[in-house]
Amino acid sequence: MTSLDRTPTSTESSAARLYLWLPVVTTLATLATVLVLALTGNGIAAAAAAAMGAAAGGIQITVHIWR
């Protein structure tokens, strides 16, 4: 008999799930740091923090084309 349950089985560990959130947390921390530095008048430090954050937490986009 065929099962109709399409619930995905989760085999990921908690460390793997945490690793998936790492770029999001890095990006949010960078944005908060840049915003605080910019609002306090440290434009050069804000630019440096933005450059370091972009290098550390770059955004990856994956496109799957189905034919």
Structural notes for this entry:
The protein contains 2 helices and no strands. Helix 1 runs antiparallel to helix 2. The longest helix has 26 residues, at 14-39. It has helices at 14-39, 43-56. It is mainly α and 67 residues long. Helix content is 60%, strand content 0%. It starts with 13 loop residues before the first helix and ends in an 11-residue tail after the last helix.
Give a quick rundown of the structure.
The protein is mostly helical and 67 residues long.
Indicate the topology.
Blueprint: H1 14-39, H2 43-56
N- to C-terminal separation?
Answer: 31 Å
Q: Kindly provide the radius of gyration, computed on alpha-carbon positions and rounded to a whole number of angstroms.
A: 19 Å
| DSSP, total strands | 0
Beta-strand content: under 5%
Q: What's the helix count?
A: 2
Shape: elongated
SSE succession? HH
Helix content: 55-70%
Question: What are the segments in which pLDDT stays under 50 over at least 5 consecutive residues?
Answer: none
